[in-house]
Amino acid sequence: MTNDHSQHDLESKQAILENIERYGCHLALLEADSYLPAFVYSIGLFKKFGHPELICFGLKTDVMASILNIACDLIKSGETLTTNRLYSEFLEGYQIQFIPVDKDFYPNYVGYGGWFYGNTFDFPLLQLVWPDKQQRFPWDQDFNSNWKFSQPLLDRNTDFKFYEERNLGVYTTSQVLAGDPILYVYHNQNGDWQFHSVLDPSIEDAKLVCLEEITKLDSTINELYHLQFGWWGWRDSIEEEWKYEKREEEE
C-alpha cells in the first residue's frame, strides 16, 4: 500500500511539472467520495502568469475541468479574473463568480499546489462559485438546499470546516464535556457523528450536543472534516496527528 501510494505520488508530481511546462498549468482532479464532493484546482497559473490559482467544487469533474480550462485560456490571453464580478463565459445559461480562498483552507484542498510552490502555501487562490438553477448563489436566501453542501465556501467559517450545519446533533459523553480529550471519532454510515475520549464509552454517559460545541471544545476536530461515512479516526493524545480508516464492521 505504501509503495503504491509513493509511486502514485511520484507520478502525480511528474505530471504536474510536465503539464505546466507544456500547457502553462495543471488541473488536479479529485473525485467525490461517500461524503465529500468532487473538486478540481489549478497549479501553475501564479508562477506562469502571476494570476491566482483556481478551484471549483461540486460538479462532475469533466465539467469542472472544462470550466477551468476556459479560465486558463482567458488568463493566457491576458485577462485577469476578479472577485465581485459576474461572468457568463463559463457555464451556458448561468453566471458564476469568484471568491478569495482563506489560507486556512489551503492544506485541506490544494496540497499538490503547496508542493509545487516549494512546500509553502504562499500563492493566491480563487474559488469559482456556481449558482442554482434559479441563479441564486449559496449565500443567497432560498438557494437550493439540496446543493448547500456541494461547494463549501472557502472565504469564511475557518473555525468550522465540516459540511453539516453547526447545530447538527452529535453524540459524545459527559467525560468529554467535563474536559477529557477527544481521542476517538466515528462517522457512521447513517451520517451520525460520535466524539469520545475512550474506545468503548458507556451508554450511560452519552450526551447529545451540537457539532459546533465539539469544535469549540477542541478546534483540532476540524482536521477530520473529511471523514467518510463508515470511517473512524483516532489518536493516542491531543498532541498527536489523527489516523483514520474505514471501520471493519462498517464494510
Provide a quick synopsis of the model:
It is built from 7 helices and 12 strands.
| Mean model confidence by pLDDT | 94
Helix % is 25-40%
Spans where pLDDT lies below 50 across 5 or more residues: none
Query: What is the tally of helical segments?
Result: 7
What is the helix/strand order? HEEHEHEEHHEEHEEEHEE
Globally, the shape reads: globular
State the total count of DSSP E strands.
12
For the record, the count of structural domains works out to 2
Sheet/helix structural class: alpha+beta
Distance between the termini: 19 Å
Strand % is 15-25%
Characterize the main sheet: 6 strands, mixed
As laid out across the biggest beta sheet, the strand order is: 1-2-3-6-5-4
What is the gyration radius calculated from CA atoms?
A: 20 Å
Explain what this protein looks like in three dimensions.
With 251 residues, the protein is of the alpha+beta class. The chain folds into two domains: 2-147, no CATH class; 169-250, no CATH class. Helices cover 25% and strands 23% of the residues. It is built from seven helices and twelve strands. It has helices at 2-23, 45-49, 61-76, 106-109, 111-116, 174-177, 211-217, and strands spanning 26-30, 39-43, 53-57, 87-91, 94-100, 125-129, 169-173, 184-187, 193-196, 206-210, 231-234, 243-246. A hairpin with a 2-residue loop joins strand 4 (87-91) and strand 5. It is globular and about 65 Å long.
